[in-house]
Amino acid sequence: MFDFDEIIDNRGTHSDKWDEMEARYGISPEDGLAMWVADMEFRPPSAVNEALAAAVAHGVHGYFGDDRDYKAAITGWM
User: How many helices (H) and strands (E) does the chain have?
Assistant: First the structure.
C-alpha cells in the first residue's frame, strides 16, 4: 500500500531534479516545483527494499546474467 500523503524531501540526496534545478533552470529548489514523471517522491514497496537489501548484503556487485526471475516478474506484472 502506498502512502501518498507522506512528504519525502529529496533535496540534498543527489536527486538530479532537485539538486540541479538552480544550475539548470535558475530556480532554487525551495521555490521550484519539480514535476518529473519518472522520478517521484514515493517510497517503493517493501518487497523492493528487501530485495535490494538482500543483494547488498551478499556483498558482491557485478554484472547479472541470469534474469529469469526478472523476466517472470515483468511477465506477471503485464
Answer: 4, 0
Handedness of CA 56, 57, 61, 64 (dihedral sign): negative
- pLDDT range class, residue 1, cuts 50, 70, 90: low
Whether this model's pTM surpasses 0.85: no
Cα separations in angstroms, 11 against 5, 35, 38, 40, 43: 18, 14, 16, 12, 15
Residue type, 75: T
Domain residue ranges of the chain, discontinuous segments joined by +? 16-77
Cβ atoms of 11 and 19 within 8 Å: the answer is yes
